[in-house]
Design goal:
Number of domains: 1
Distance between the termini: 66 Å
Strand content: over 45%
Shape: elongated
Number of strands: 7
Helix content: 10-25%
Length: 115
Amino acid sequence: MRAIILLFVLTISLYCADGDHLVVGNVADRVVLADHATAEYNAFPFMKRVKYYFFSSPDNKKIQGIQVLDNLHSKASVNITAGGVGHSFVNLRMKSERGKGLSYDIGIYVSPDFQ
């Protein structure tokens, strides 16, 4: 019986260990999608793939939210290297697992114009 419970817990923990998503700030309420992009790299054996993404607001609006979703549900990582929420620019660094591909869906949200 203990073996069955242990197997069940292990299966659930592996199923729940999905990709590394990044959600910072407000991405749902009273914000406008300023930029939408997809960052993709194919797999290369025994190598980690690194992709950079740069966004700068053309009219200097401050970023309200950043949403970066891992489409492959891998163990890839994403980091903000400069800027971010409260700034008018953001730099992202995405790194894949060794020998795996990379696929992220990126959304940058800014406050709307009320004129």
